[in-house]
Structures are given as structure tokens and as C-alpha cells.
């Protein structure tokens, strides 16, 4: 079976993780990706530890299947080479701050005059317009301004930074979807288009359910009103006897009913959505109970009520299901 993007060529000018992640996914789908790196130094990701031999693990991951070349876009000869490549390419992806590609003479308006069928995607923190378009930022800033950190709180009410880059990876996925949609539209119209991906916008979009609550209630949800916040006893992390942890996600009524029955506490079935003191009573009961058995004992006993072990990285990559599903490959 042929890959869906085997005839697509992508010029990757990205200097950030979202862009590199986006073109990595496109290359996995069969696209030919030509990564344009800076002269003399190359992509800064090449020097990020740890290393496999003399090569950065991060660079190897994000740039698998890609071809690389260096190009001085500030020099006339470099721009000429880039323009020649752009004339025969299908997609350009860049992550410079707004205005940089215009100064270099490689912006969308310039390139589309050479290649009207080109799809041109820009990934930035705040988008191409607005008062903060040139403000620097990273994933933590976009999560903070977008509201993610405002609802991801510890028990003291302080924001907790997630262990995964929400805005970066989310921005990459939104860019891939948008590029694929633009390529499909090109099949019908014969014309490419410009895509403006703002990672702050992506964060807002990922919080659509929370903002729907906000607009419906005219107030932000409290932590205890968010199922995924970990504040509710039926959707929470609990420690077990061996010092490890399990994740309980018995959100639906049937799963909560099965859980209470398995634990011999049918009297709690009607109190799944209890508040105040009753909620604290149930949380305390479950906390103490889960400390009586080891993690794997509980996850095996309660596997049919959305209860699972929380794995370390070592355990996750050796998990038999992921191996069988070929999720983890060399």
C-alpha cells in the first residue's frame, strides 16, 4: 500500500519543537521533508543532551526520515536556492517570529507568486497579528496565558506544570491537520493557502469544554467541578501499599456501581456525586483502602472499572500490550 503523502515535498524552516514535530509526523505519513538548517551551527537541537553516540536523542527523534541542508537565507544566493526549491515543493513550514520571513524575502505572498499551489504554514506563539505577536514564549507561557495552568492545581491551589508539552505538541497536531486539509482543498481548487497556527489559540481550543462551562455558567469552573482535576474520589490517583500508584477513572455510573460492589460498599453507590463532607469521607475511605494492597493487585482486581497502574517510563516501554500493538519500536 502506498503512503498517502509519498508525492508531497515539505520544506521545513522550523526552529521550534512544534514545527519539527509537525514535519516528523508528515514524514511518517510518507512526505519527503527537506529540513533547512542554519549555516555553520545547524539546528540547535543537535546539541541538546543526552546523546546517542555523538548525536542528540532529541534531534534524532524529531528529524527521523528527513533530509537536511544548510542555507544562508540572509544571502542572495541562499534565497535564490530556497526560491528554486519552493517552486517545486508542496508545503513550507516556518516558525520565525512574525515579520522575519518578509524581511528575508521568503514570505507567503512572495512564494505564491512563484508557486500558487503551495501550502504555507506558520507556527508561532501568538499568531501573525495582535499586540503580543512578537512576544517571546515557551510552552509554559502559552499554557499559563491560555488557562491550562489556572485549572491544573495541587491541593494547595498552586498551578502545576504538566509533564508533557501541551501547547507544543498540540500546535504540531493542529498544524498537521490544517496542512492535510489544505492539501485536500488544493486537489479541488488547484490553489494552495496560508495557515496561521498560534500555540496560544491551540491551548484555548483544547480547553473548549472548560470555556463552554464558563460561557454557560458565567463563571469559571471550580477545581472540584472538573472531573479531570483529580479532586473527585471516582476520578483520582491513589497510592498503594508498595508505594506505587493507581489511576481510578470510574466516572460513569455503571463503573462506579461496579467499583462499590467489588469493594463491598454498595451503600456508597448513591453518593458518587456527593459534595462537602460526604465527598471527603469517600475520598478518605478509598485512600486508606488502596493502601492495603499492592498496585498490581488493585489494577488486576479492578481492571473492569477503569482502574489502571501508573507506570514509570521503564514499565511503559516494556508493557506487553504496547509491544504487541507495536507502539514502541526500535
Structure description:
- This protein is an alpha/beta fold.
- The chain has 15 helices and eleven strands.
- The strands form three sheets. A six-stranded parallel sheet has the order 5-2-1-6-7-8.
- A hairpin with a 2-residue loop joins strand 3 (51-52) and strand 4 (55-56).
- Helix 1 crosses helix 8, helix 6 packs across helix 9 (199-206) and helix 8 packs across helix 9.
- The longest helix has 24 residues, at 166-189.
- The relative contact order is 0.09.
- The model has no long low-confidence stretch (mean pLDDT 93).
Quick recap:
With 330 residues, the protein is α/β, with parallel strands linked by helices.
Strand content: 5-15%
Low-confidence runs (pLDDT<50, min 5 residues)?
Answer: none
Report the order of strands and helices: EHEEEHEHEHHEHHHEHHEEHHHEHH
Q: Strand tally, please?
A: 11
**Describe the biggest sheet?**
6 strands, parallel
Q: Helix count, per DSSP? A: 15
What number is the mean pLDDT? 93
What is the 3D shape? elongated
Rg (CA only): 24 Å
- Physical arrangement of strands within the biggest beta sheet: 5-2-1-6-7-8
**What is the first-to-last residue Cα distance?**
22 Å
**Given the helix and strand composition, which structural class is it?**
alpha/beta
What percentage of residues falls in helices of 4 or more residues? Answer: 40-55%
Amino acid at each position: 500500500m502506498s503512503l498517502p503523502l509519498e508525492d508531497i515535498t515539505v520544506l521545513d524552516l522550523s526552529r521550534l519543537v512544534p514545527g519539527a514535530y509537525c514535519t516528523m509526523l508528515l514524514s511518517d505519513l510518507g512526505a519527503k521533508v527537506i529540513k533547512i538548517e542554519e549555516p555553520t551551527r545547524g539546528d540547535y537541537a543537535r546539541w541538546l543532551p543526552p546523546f546517542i553516540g555523538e548525536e542528540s536523542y532529541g534531534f534524532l527523534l524529531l528529524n527521523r526520515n528527513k533530509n537536511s541542508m544548510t542555507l544562508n537565507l540572509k544571502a542572495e544566493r541562499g534565497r535564490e536556492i530556497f526560491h528554486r526549491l519552493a517552486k517545486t515543493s508542496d508545503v513550507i513550514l516556518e516558525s520565525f517570529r512574525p515579520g522575519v520571513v518578509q524581511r528575508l524575502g521568503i514570505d507567503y505572498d512572495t512564494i505564491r507568486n512563484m508557486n500558487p499551489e503551495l501550502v504555507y504554514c506558520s507556527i508561532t506563539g501568538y499568531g501573525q497579528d495582535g499586540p503580543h505577536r512578537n512576544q517571546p514564549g515557551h510552552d509554559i507561557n502559552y499554557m499559563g496565558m491560555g488557562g491550562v495552568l489556572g485549572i491544573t492545581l495541587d491541593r494547595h491551589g498552586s498551578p502545576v506544570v504538566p509533564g508533557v508539552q501541551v501547547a507544543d505538541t498540540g500546535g504540531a497536531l493542529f498544524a498537521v491537520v490544517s496542512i492535510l486539509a489544505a492539501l485536500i482543498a488544493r486537489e479541488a481548487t488547484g490553489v494552495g493557502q496560508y495557515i496561521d497556527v498560534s500555540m496560544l489559540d491551540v491551548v484555548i481550543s483544547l480547553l473548549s469544554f472548560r470555556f463552554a462551562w464558563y460561557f454557560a455558567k458565567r463563571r469559571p469552573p471550580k477545581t472540584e467541578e472538573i472531573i479531570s482535576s483529580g479532586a473527585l474520589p471516582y476520578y483520582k490517583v491513589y497510592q498503594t501499599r508498595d508505594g506505587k500508584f493507581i489511576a481510578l477513572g470510574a466516572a460513569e455510573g455503571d463503573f462506579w456501581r461496579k467499583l462499590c460492589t467489588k469493594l463491598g460498599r454498595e451503600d456508597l453507590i448513591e453518593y458518587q456525586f456527593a459534595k462537602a463532607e460526604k465527598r471527603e469521607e469517600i475520598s478518605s475511605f478509598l485512600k486508606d483502602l488502596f493502601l492495603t494492597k499492592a498496585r498490581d493487585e488493585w489494577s488486576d482486581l479492578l481492571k473492569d472499572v477503569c482502574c489502571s497502574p501508573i507506570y514509570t517510563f521503564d514499565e511503559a516501554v516494556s508493557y506487553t500490550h504496547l509491544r504487541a500493538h507495536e507502539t514502541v519500536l526500535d
